UniProtKB/TrEMBL annotation:
Pfam families: DUF188. PANTHER family: UPF0178 PROTEIN YAII. The lineage of its organism: Bacteria, Pseudomonadati, Pseudomonadota, Gammaproteobacteria, Thiotrichales. This is UPF0178 protein HQN79_06905. Belongs to the UPF0178 family. InterPro entries: UPF0178.
Length: 147
C-alpha cells in the first residue's frame, strides 16, 4: 500500500496542507516525522511520528521505515539520495522529483555550495515558496497518487 513520509521539521505548512487534503481525498497514509510535536488533523490517514532530537534522527527513521515505491517529501538531498537507493521516490516541496538520474548532480551541487559557505562566501538562501512551487508540488503528488 502506498505510503507518504514527510521530513516534517522543515516542510512548509502549505505543503503539509496539500498533503493532508490528498490523504483524505485518496485514502493514502501520510506520516510526518519530526523531532518536535506538531498538530496534525485528526484522521486515520494522517500520522505524526515524533522522534528524539538529534542530528539526522528523523532522516534515519524515514530511511529505516520507507519501502520501494513510497514517496518521501523532503528538501534534504542526502535523505533523498538514501531513499532513492531503497527504491522509494523523493519529492521536494518545490515540486522537483529527485531520481536516480538527477540525485548525483544535486548532491554534488549541495556539497559545492556547502564548501563555499564554509569558506565564508555568502550564498544566500532559497527563494520563498511561491504559487508556482506549490502547483508544481501538487502536480507531482497527483502523478504519484494515480500510479
Amino acid at each position: 500500500m502506498k505510503q507518504i513520509w514527510v521530513d516534517a521539521d522543515a516542510c512548509p505548512v502549505v505543503i503539509k496542507e496539500i498533503l493532508f487534503k490528498a490523504a483524505q481525498r485518496t485514502h493514502t497514509s501520510v506520516t510526518l516525522v519530526a523531532n518536535h510535536f506538531m498538530r496534525v488533523p485528526s484522521s486515520k490517514y494522517i500520522h505524526l511520528r515524533q522522534v528524539p532530537s538529534g542530528f539526522d534522527v528523523a532522516d534515519n527513521w524515514i530511511v529505516q521505515h520507507c519501502e520501494a515505491q513510497d514517496l518521501v517529501v523532503t528538501a534534504d538531498i542526502p535523505l533523498a539520495s538514501e531513499v532513492i537507493a531503497k527504491g522509494a521516490l523523493a519529492l521536494n516541496p518545490r515540486g522537483e522529483l529527485y531520481t536516480e538520474s538527477n540525485i548525483r548532480a544535486r548532491l554534488n551541487m549541495r556539497d559545492f555550495m556547502e564548501s563555499l559557505r564554509s569558506s565564508g562566501i555568502q550564498t544566500g538562501g532559497p527563494a520563498a515558496l511561491n504559487q508556482q512551487d506549490r502547483q508544481a508540488f501538487a502536480n507531482q503528488l497527483d502523478r504519484w497518487l494515480v500510479k
